[in-house]
Amino acid sequence: MKIETLVEDIYSTLESEHKISEDNMSSFLKGIEKSLRDHIENKRDYTTNPTLRMSSIGKPLRRLWMEFNRPKKDTPPKGSLLIKFLYGSILEELLIFLTKEAGHSVTDEQKEVTLNGVKGHIDCKIDGELVDVKSTSDFAFRKFKLGTLENDDPFGYIGQISGYAIAEGRNKGYFLAINKVTGEITLLEIDDFGIINANKRIDQIRKAVDDTEPPSLCYSSVADGKSGNMRLNRNCVYCPFKAECWKDLRVFKYKDSLRYLSKVVREPNVPEVTDTYI
């Protein structure tokens, strides 16, 4: 089978009569167990020194500099966010299971690769092609579906799959993504025009994090309507170092969300929040 028909084949498997493979079911349940243990028993240690991983090489340089040179000032994730991460991991296991059930081959699951001294683990190869599996929000899913990820990639997914591809001697890779909200699936190919020079990128990161001063800001602030106020780019909102990057940061609590303002000309008529790490 060919990977190009993967999404159609998964849908067809679900829509028709189908008997589940016991081997696939066993592998799926083991994957679910591992996800549960990783997220509940083997929680991440926030006190350890950072290590450059393949999954990080696409992040903005300033963010990486902060991770290596500044202690994190945020608190560990709250329970609701941890459930979100767990849910995402389970969905990714489900995609692998459905891929197998649809008759496509899955090999090299979690194979360790190394490039320029940096290690990572590929999700798998499907029908012989390198694939990274992602569970996404409705907003992020559109970038995979419409093929605009290369123009808006705050989590560094292109850098990540580029590292995997070059480490495996390939000039392309695929993202298999599922929308957490709608259940929709899409497959995005990143060809040799989208793959970055991951070796050069790793050298660039090492040089940057060893510098005494951080690189320039990852993102500029944006206008908050016509008030004259400026708010953080949405990609900065989730960063634990936002208060260090934006010294005049103020946070206001609206009915359904927090608004992070880097410049206040007209003060909002809502409560101000002093804990900027919420």
Describe the protein:
It is a single chain. This protein is α+β, with helices and mostly antiparallel strands and 278 residues long. The protein has 2 domains: 3-208, Lambda Exonuclease, Chain A, CATH 3.90.320; 222-273, no CATH class. The chain has 9 helices and 12 strands. Strands 1-4-5-6-7 form a 5-stranded mixed sheet, with helices on both faces. A hairpin with a 5-residue loop joins strand 6 and strand 7. The radius of gyration is 21 Å and the shape is globular.
Task: List the defining traits of the structure above.
278 residues, Lambda Exonuclease, Chain A, 2 domains, five-stranded mixed sheet, 12 strands, 18% strand
* Beta-strand content estimate: 15-25%
Largest sheet: number of strands, sense, barrel closure: 5 strands, mixed
Which outline best applies? Answer: globular
* DSSP summary: helix tally: 9
Segments where pLDDT lies below 50 for 5+ residues? none
Under CATH, the topology of the largest domain is which?
Answer: Lambda Exonuclease, Chain A
The CATH architecture term of the largest domain is Alpha-Beta Complex
Summarize the structure.
With 278 residues, the chain is an alpha+beta fold. The chain is globular, with a radius of gyration of 21 Å. The protein has 2 domains: 3-208, Lambda Exonuclease, Chain A (Alpha-Beta Complex), CATH 3.90.320; 222-273, no CATH class.
Give the helix/strand layout.
Blueprint: H1 6-15, H2 22-40, H3 61-69, H4 79-101, E1 106-107, E2 112-115, E3 118-121, E4 124-126, E5 129-136, H5 138-146, H6 157-167, E6 173-179, E7 185-190, H7 198-209, E8 222-223, E9 230-231, H8 234-237, H9 242-245, E10 250-253, E11 258-263, E12 272-273
Parallel strand pairs: 5-6
Antiparallel strand pairs: 1-4, 2-3, 4-5, 6-7, 8-9, 9-11, 10-11, 10-12
